[in-house]
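Figure-free illustration: sequence to structure, shown twice.
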Amino acid sequence: MQHKINQQRLQQQVSVDSAGTHAYHVGEQSDPRSRAFAAGQGIDMDFIRARKISVNDYDSFDYILAMDEDNLALIEYYAPDQHDAQIALFLQAAHELGVVSELAVPDPYYGGDSGFAHVFDLVNHGCDAWLAKLANV
């Protein structure tokens, strides 16, 4: 998403971060295949380190987007009773536009090398759809 924000020169209007719902890989980089595929698309992900969602995120961000229903349920479960963030599926905006048929981003780890390309395409569509949606808010 940051790549898209930079391309559209929206750094002053849009801020993004990434967090997981589990602490399994906190501090680690993403899968080397994911970083390699992104690098092939001109996107540097080497600076990204895993972190777990925190209670502060619910007031620090306008939107908290989940990649699938399981993570959506966990994000909703962790949410404090009072918070400002809207919680949604990441692909919801692209699905509403008819750009993708899926609502869940699959884990590329289980899709072999082509899984990373498929996930990249889904995330790319999701980013475009959310930026378009935010432009109209």
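We now fold a second protein in the same way, so the two outputs can be compared directly.
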Amino acid sequence: MEETIFSKILRGEIPCHEVYRDEHVLAFLDIQPIAHGHTLVIPVEPAATLDRLSDASAAAIGSVLPRISRAVLKATGTKDFNVLQNNGAPAHQTVFHVHFHIIPKPNAEEGLGMGGWPAKDIDHAEGAALAAQMRAYLAED
């Protein structure tokens, strides 16, 4: 995996405002927040995208993400928030180390904005075939 700013933060070469750390996970304040309290949660394990992350690191993040979210909400006095995780440049990933954004949403103007959700109706025959294919891949994994 290529060197990233998160690699340097994990090694202590770049300081951060640490929120949480254990042997598998580091959480820290984003230095370019889109809302007060915007926090990043990253695995210690280097992996560019979520599909490349080990089950152990994914489980470690999953077990602390709710706790960190609660701390962000209490510290900011916010009750609404987004959790965002992007994979690949076309999906708006800019740092190629898995990371989750916890972004407080104090009101309609602040926090993560969504320009719309391009939803379509599912084709149920295609959906059944796709779900079967995914189950087969999961059985192999």
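Summary for the second example: The chain has a mean pLDDT of 96.
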